[in-house]
UniProtKB/TrEMBL annotation:
<feature type="transmembrane region" description="Helical">
    <location>
        <begin position="12"/>
        <end position="30"/>
    </location>
</feature>
<dbReference type="InterPro" id="IPR006008">
    <property type="entry name" value="YciB"/>
</dbReference>
<comment type="similarity">
    <text>Belongs to the YciB family.</text>
</comment>
<comment type="function">
    <text>Plays a role in cell envelope biogenesis, maintenance of cell envelope integrity and membrane homeostasis.</text>
</comment>
<keyword id="KW-1133">Transmembrane helix</keyword>
<feature type="transmembrane region" description="Helical">
    <location>
        <begin position="167"/>
        <end position="186"/>
    </location>
</feature>
<feature type="transmembrane region" description="Helical">
    <location>
        <begin position="70"/>
        <end position="90"/>
    </location>
</feature>
<keyword id="KW-0997">Cell inner membrane</keyword>
<feature type="transmembrane region" description="Helical">
    <location>
        <begin position="102"/>
        <end position="118"/>
    </location>
</feature>
<feature type="transmembrane region" description="Helical">
    <location>
        <begin position="42"/>
        <end position="64"/>
    </location>
</feature>
<feature type="transmembrane region" description="Helical">
    <location>
        <begin position="138"/>
        <end position="155"/>
    </location>
</feature>
<dbReference type="Pfam" id="PF04279">
    <property type="entry name" value="IspA"/>
</dbReference>
<protein>
    <recommendedName>
        <fullName>Inner membrane-spanning protein YciB</fullName>
    </recommendedName>
</protein>
<keyword id="KW-0472">Membrane</keyword>
<keyword id="KW-0812">Transmembrane</keyword>
<keyword id="KW-1003">Cell membrane</keyword>
<dbReference type="GO" id="GO:0005886">
    <property type="term" value="C:plasma membrane"/>
</dbReference>
Length: 207
């Protein structure tokens, strides 16, 4: 599978994380204010969401234009942000946007788990060129990532339902990305143990 065109990693990181940081900054500035738009009063959270949606659309399109490809997660995230963020703004109800990470993680946990049941490792098909590992290594990583997505879905539900809005925004902006980084760091030994040596051929992910 083609990895697309390479771009400056700092530019790529800015396009991927910039909208989320902007959402965080706008929320901090407006969290204690009510903004009157048209005939309706909106909380700072809703206004931050309203700004976040078109910015994410724009940066995703720019990223696609520059690299020539988007990952499944990027596409799904964009669709769910537009749908659930749009519902939050339209109905003036922040709960829809707060549920969005839960739904994303459950969808990916379901897809990865289903691929394990079918013994067709879709994660390996997508990332095998970037991370060369044996089929067994990909099976273990997929299982662990499935469990991670389930855990993150549960964590998101707990945080947004039981804690303050500010806590959830901080968790969403910094906590969730940090947990992914920690996950892959902790799996460093897995990548080393099951790495494909130059004289080896990877197994068929559909086997």
């Amino acid at each position: 599978m083609s990895e697309g065109r390479k771009i400056n990693p700092w530019l790529k990181a800015g396009l991927e994380f910039g909208p989320l940081i902007l959402f965080f900054v706008v929320f901090l500035k407006l969290k204690d204010r009510t903004v009157h738009l048209g005939a309706t009063d909106y909380s700072g959270f809703i206004v931050a969401t309203l700004i976040f949606i078109p910015v994410l659309v724009a940066t995703t399109l720019i990223l696609w234009r520059l690299t020539g490809r988007l990952s499944v997660m990027q596409i799904l995230t964009l669709v769910l942000v537009v749908v659930f963020g749009g519902l939050s703004v339209w109905l003036n109800d922040p709960r829809f946007f707060k549920m969005k990470p839960t739904i994303i993680y459950l969808i990916f946990a379901g897809l990865l788990g289903f691929s394990l049941i079918l013994k067709r490792n879709w994660l390996q098909l997508v990332l095998s060129e970037a991370i060369p590992m044996t089929t067994e290594g990909w099976r273990i990583l997929t299982l662990r990532l499935t469990l991670l997505f389930l855990a993150l879905a549960g964590a998101n539900e707990i945080v947004w339902r039981t804690m303050s809005e500010s806590t959830w925004v901080s968790f969403k902006t910094f906590g969730l990305p940090a947990l992914f980084v920690v996950f892959f760091v902790l799996n460093g030994k897995l990548f080393d143990q099951y790495a494909i040596k130059p004289d080896e051929k990877p197994g068929n992910p559909s086997e």
